[in-house]
Amino acid sequence: MSAFTLSFDCYALLSELQLQRTASTRYLQEQLQAQMPLGRALIDKLEQLQQQGLVRLRGEQQWSLTAEGTLALILAVRSGACPMPNWARVPSVTGQEMAQALVRELCLGEAGQVPTYYLAADLLGLLDVTDAHRLLPGSSPQWQQLMLMHFSLQTLLDAEPGAQWPLASVASACAPELKSVSEGFAAEWQWLCGDLAGEVTTHWPALQQLAEQGGEQPLAERLLGALGQWQAEGVKGQWPLMFSALLWLGWLQQADPVIASEQRKKWQRSLGNQFPLLADLLGQWAGDRHGQAVGLFDTLQLPLEELHWGYLWLDLCALARHGEQSPQVAILHKWDLSHVLEAQPHHRLMAFCQDLLRLLLGQGAQRAPLQQLRAANGDDASADQDEDDKTPASASWLNWLQGLGRSSGVRKAQERLVWLLHAEGPELECKIQKQSTKGEWTAGRRVDPALLSTQYAALLDEEDWALVRTLPRVMGQLPREAWAPLATHPRLFNAKGQKLQLAVSAPLLQIVATEQGMSALLSPSAAARGAHILPLAQDLWQLILTPQALLDRLPALESIPLLPAEGLSELQRTLDAIPDLPWHSQVAGLQGNAELAPWPGIPSVQLDWQDGQLAVKLVTRQGELPPLPLGKGEAIVRQGIKDYHYWQRDLVAEKGQAQQLRNSLPIGLPGSEWLLQGEQALALVNVLPELVDAGVVIHWHQDSARLKSLDEAALSLRIERRQDWFQVEGALALDEHQILDLRLILRQMTPGQRTVQLDEKTSLMLSDKLVERLTMLGAMLDEEQRINNKLAYPLTRLLSVITTEGDDAWHSLQQEWQQEVECPAELLTPLRDYQKDGVRWLATLAHHGFGACLADDMGLGKTLQALIVLRMRQHLGPALVVVPKSVVTNWQEEVARFAPELEVVVFENPSEREGVIRDARAGQVILLNYGMLGSLAEALKSRRWSSMVLDEAQQIKNAGTQRAKLLFQLEGDFRLALSGTPIENHLGELWSLFTFINPGLLGSLGEFKRRFGKAVKDPQHMALLRAVISPFILRRLKQQVLTELPDKTEIIHHISLSPEERQLYEATRREVVQQVQSADGRALMHVLSGLTRLRRLCCSPELVMPEWSQTSSKLDEAMALLDEAIGNGHRVLVFSQFVDLLSLLRARIEQKKWDYCYLDGGCSAKSRQDSILRFRHEPVPLFLISLKAGGTGLNLTQADTVLHLDPWWNPAVEDQASDRAHRMGQTQPVTVYRLVCEQTVEEKIVALHDEKRALADGLLSGQSEVRGLDVESLRALLMG
């Protein structure tokens, strides 16, 4: 780690981030505005520090310090170039300040209460030995000891020979109490890396004696004795220094792998996080990285002076875990390692590595203690046990018997190497495939062929080795010698994974006359590169391999001078002598061995239907030869792989033929190959008979199914009445000779798909209209092809263009439903065109006895359209209108304005309610709010209503509520639901809505779930559901029908929490996570409760902690936005779901002496109406509204700005609230602000809004990508 020179502005940024841990760009601007320029200069400086690796970007505009940045700050302070950060600003109690204390110790050298714990690990990982000279002097004793251990272990891992311990000069500057520690490290290094012949007394005499002297006692016992002696003589719990422990463990692994495994794990547990580098090395010891010997063999090829012997010892020990007979160790025998084994060792560590390598190769060790191990075990000793296998080697026969008795039903997954050849290049790819329990092979993972002989040697068989030996280390063009083993390889596939056969042949050599003499041409010309692939079929490719003898002579053959007769004879003999070379001559006096004739191919159109796509190619065909691209490719074509007969193509003439064919096809695209889908494919299949009649040759690929087209004209139905249902029989006319039963097509058809496979050789392509009709039929008919009366009406929508026969009952009903309802012109006069269409649609459904859902976007006049229908039906009897309490007054005003002849009954005296309901007459509208339904249940059920209207019908989205159950029981001739959001969260809400408007249409809830429960995730089921409900739902969006409505701009305004708020938020979040994880059976309750706490804390900590005395970042930002808006003459609606948050905001507004109106659920009807009228008619700049009380039913177009203080789960609720201002009558652009705290649950809630909107759009707008939200999704909001 080199020292950093920090400018003042870089120091200011790093020290601020060191104090804050994480900070936003905006926060840094506020804190540093007095010290450095703001704006873009700050961002440029942060990006510069990011490129240097000193800071990192976490999320959107959130910055934090890296370990490199911490070290740079430390070095700058320690050098005196920069002052100490202002530690007084750091809170003193929380655990997160440990990192600050570490930096304080390193910077000041003061002795604190900081042990050598895990927070040091990342920082130490950045340091090398050169940093010791800068950091050790002046640090506290604890840090000196920690760094001394770290740097000493590094010197032994590098193991560079020398006369003196590399840390000798800086160790003398350490605290006196560390003298014995540094002397121990120096002695350890001197013994392992010092002069091999020098005498030295190491820190661990017992280990030194064991390594330098033999002994009769078993090696494992001697090693354990040496460890026991150390522990008896040393300080309790103290480590036998660093690298010596790894050396000891490596020897013990060779002597007794089971005890070595247990000791390694014990050490890892006792280490904890106290010695991070050593703990990491012990972990790598048993890891797959070393076990697979990644890079080890490349390392052993390095010059000896470049080897790091300490790291090599670890790699060899890790490899030795697999045993001498393992495939991993067997790879060693394939490499020449004599330069390592025969070299004179520079020091003891190198000698120890050489001996361990000899053992792995099955040779005898030359030094103690491994020399003793070989002598004790003999040449037949086995070390093939994994260190984690606790079974002694002596009991291997028992393992064998036990294994023989086990069930062989569970088969270990097998692996194999496969080779994929790509024609382009050509390029060779290697993959490792696994075999599933079903015996099938996976697609495989790609591996570098250069690593096969080292990392994956166990998978290579003889064919693989023959190929691998020919491949270069860096894959490029395949060498010539690779083609022979590749062509005979049993596991060669094409890019699609199909078994591939390579047929090897030579190119055709042509001798042609030129003005200067003669010239030689190769066909194909690409064969001049040595190899060329020509696909003949999916599983058969021709490899055109140019003989080396010809390649050597090609430069000379490109320009042949005029030759006399004897020269021609010599050239003849030379060419004939090249083995397996076909050649042809146009020069008199030279007779080649190949024939060349004009190509007699026929131009044609080849069709191939595969995987829902129609591949179209213009080709030329001759006999059994594979079709060739028309006007493209090689001019010379070989008759057969081993045949010396060739064809000469006229590519210019073929291009003219291709243009004629192209003009005859209804494709309209350039080129000669196309991949058609949908309508394009259908258009071509429809004209195939005409093309054949015009003389176009049509050829289907041998592996392709024949494709035939069908449109809706081919469908015919017969419908007959059967009691309370209709029987539907149908047929599809494929041609005049073949009629298909509708049952067969519906069984074979996948909903939403346009192709149906009749058999292996025939597929049908259905037009979009026919797919739509069949999809609807599939949704409406039961297994016996019957349809109930409720679903008969949607069925009529598809019968207008279908040949339909039926009995008198069906025809009578169909004629009745086709009648259009006349709407009095005077009633439609005040309406816009789209509203007139809506009224006609509602009136028609009402006339035929069906209910409806008017789902127009907010602000499009749903109330007005409903009133016009009530006026048309007033003579039929009284109407019941149920609305939210907040819009009762609005309905009264709308009736008075647009339907004055209707008598609105709003109950004033509770005692009169039941009597008024029972006595209600034609022309009266009984106006109730949802809260009154329970007390009037019996009276409402006692009579029948001519019309029933539910405003904001999402109020009954939960079918299990008493409110919904009561409304389902009421009797009414026409049921109308008004809702801009008929579905908000899940499909059960849709079932509840339709149970009210058209009872029985979607069946029982259980039947609905069985038929359409997958619609949320399956587009096909969504299409079926949409086909059933679409006749009864009408939805128009504002952007579709109100082109004059001004723009609405939506802005997510991000807010950074203050450090104090952030600290409180994280502490609360962790507490909530802990509660959720320990909850039994009540996970959802805990999750929702915890999320509410976090959301309220984001709004203001005072909502969670009444004693909170500091500020609220969100309320501060809200006041700043309101100040700006009011100052610029805007009028603002402020929404929140938390009434107490509105109260906090009111207090601030009153301090500012701003005028405002207020509305929440606790306001009386009079107070509510007074506030609305005051805002409409007086220049009041602010209206504070609770989301539940005023998010719907209000018309407040006097405002042009909307402020949402906190995000609600469902974006539709927020959209409805915003459209109190953005609706008909608004003349100014509307701006909607959503205040969202960064890196909090609020950001994640906003991210969920898109999923919520997708559910509604999937049903109402034809889209089908929707997702639900479950407990786990909610739980994820709490994590991080």
Automatic annotation (TrEMBL):
An annotated Gene Ontology molecular function: helicase activity
- Database matches in InterPro entries: Helicase_ATP-bd, Helicase_C-like, P-loop_NTPase, SNF2-like_sf, SNF2/RAD54-like_C, SNF2_N
Q: Which Pfam family is an annotated match for this chain, by its short name?
A: SNF2-rel_dom
What CDD domains does this protein's entry cite? Answer: DEXQc_arch_SWI2_SNF2, SF2_C_SNF
Q: Domain Helicase C-terminal spans what residues?
A: 1114-1267
- Domain Helicase ATP-binding residues, every copy: 843-1000
What top-level branch of life does the organism fall under?
Bacteria
Alphabetical UniProt keywords? ATP-binding, Helicase, Hydrolase, Nucleotide-binding
Q: What PANTHER family does UniProt report for this protein, alphabetically?
A: SNF2/RAD54 HELICASE FAMILY
Protein name from the UniProt record = Putative ATP-dependent helicase
Q: Which organism is it from?
A: Aeromonas salmonicida subsp. pectinolytica 34mel
